[in-house]
Every structure is written in C-alpha cells, then in structure tokens.
Amino acid sequence: MRQGILFVVSGPAGSGKGTVVEALCKAHSDVGLSVSMTTRQPRATDAEGVTYYFTTRDDFENRIKNGEFLEYNIFDGNNEYYGTPKFSVEKSLSEGKDIILEIEVNGAMNVKKQFPNAVAIMLTPPNGEILKSRLRGRGSEDEHEIAERLETAKKELALFPKYDYLVVNEEGKVDECAELIYSIIRAERQRIIYTKPIIDNFNL
Ligand code: 5GP
Q1: Would you list the DSSP string of 160-179?
Q2: Domain for residue 16, yes or no?
C-alpha cells in the first residue's frame, strides 16, 4: 500500500477555499481534511473540532515547545497562530489516505520543504474586484481588518509561481471548482512514484 499524498490548498481571503475544500471532501470520502489549531476567535460559521481546534496563545506556545505541529505560523492578516497538528496528518498518511491541508502560503512552503512530494494548489477568485467584494460581503471583519487582509492577499498571490497548480474559483461554481481540484488529486495518484509497484509486480 502506498503512503497517502499531501495536498496543500492556499488562497487569499475571499478565494472561497474553505467552501470549495468542504464541498470536495463531502463529495469524495477518499480525501480527508486536516483540522488545524488556531488562537483566533471562532466565527459564527465555525465549529470546534470541525473547522478548527480553538485554543489560547499559552496552550499553542506549549504545543510548539512540545513539537506537536507539522508546521505553524503567525498569520499576517490577524497576528494569530495557526498550525497543523502532527498526529492526524501522520496517521492519515501512514494509512494511505490522501489529505488536504488548507493553509496559508508560508505554512504551505514549510510543508513542501518537509514533504517534497506534497502538491500545492493555489486557489484564486476570478479577479481583484471580486476578491474585494467577497471580503466585504463576509461581514466578519471591520474596514481596518479588511485592508490588512487585502495587503496579505497581495503578498500571498505574488507567491503563486511556487505552487504546482492554480485554480480559479468562478462565481457560483463551487462544485465545479471542487471537481477540478479532485481531478488534480486523481491525476497525481497516477504518478510513477506511486504506480511503479504495479509494473514491478507483473513478474513476467
Ligand atoms: P481564517 O482565519 O480565515 O480561517 O484563516 C486565516 C488563514 O490561515 C488562511 O489563509 C488559512 O488558510 C490559514 N490557515 C488555516 N489553518 C492553518 C494552519 O494549520 N497552518 C497555517 N500555516 N495556516 C493555516
């Protein structure tokens, strides 16, 4: 049995990555989602243990000291900690389950360093205007926070050449976008590094 493959999905606030990744995992039970830990306050749409594990800064910093994270970062947009707990990711990979990490760009690059075969996908809105209006439409941040997130979005988008794939999340096409990402997952599974055993076992 092969190890699971790590897929990293990043995208600026307003790219709709949370919605797309949720739709993908709902439609395809062969893809798992890693639940991150964060120190930010829960939003109305969050659920403990589902969207995130929420915790305090003290607890998060203790876990850093204990080496409990595969990667973690203080997110530019709000100065809060976000991290990927090691335990669930390592378990899924060793069980051969492919897993998606929905994380920001610095975290994504850290994962790529540790797992060179990880596949990084950048999700974007169709254009800058739509990005701005999606950010405002969310209503969960004030104008100052929105301006900060826009600055962060600019920096994040500038890193797209470091990614393996770029996917545009068109307006009102969440399921299509999820399916496009799933088609990347299916194609990646056929890479020779994973499928070589098929030929090796021919015993001709
Ligand atoms: P939000 O507060 O909007 O849920 O997330 C803010 C940013 O943190 C997003 O870009 C999201 O992808 C990123 N993020 C979520 N979980 C993690 C994580 O475990 N590690 C890192 N590095 N970033 C994360």
Answers
A1: GGGSSEEEE--TT-HHHHHH
A2: yes
CB within 6 Å of ligand 1 — which residues? 13, 36, 40, 71, 73, 75, 77, 82-84, 102-104, 107
Q: pLDDT of 72-85, one tens digit each?
A: 999 987 899 999 99
Token digits for 181? Answer: 């990402």
Residue of minimum CA distance from atom 11 in ligand 1: 103
- With residue 57 as reference, give the H or E element that holds it: helix 57-65
Residues of the domain holding 175: 6-200
Q: What is the CATH number of the domain that holds 95?
A: 3.40.50.300
Type of residue found at 177:
C
Strand order in the sheet with 165-168: 31-33, 98-102, 6-10, 119-124, 165-168
Number of Cβ within 10 Å of residue 156's Cβ equals 23
Whether 1 is covered by a domain: the verdict is no
Q: How many domains does the chain have?
A: 1
Q: Which residues touch 153 (CB under 8 Å, ≥6 apart)?
A: 12, 13, 14, 131, 135
- pTM score > 0.70 for this model? yes
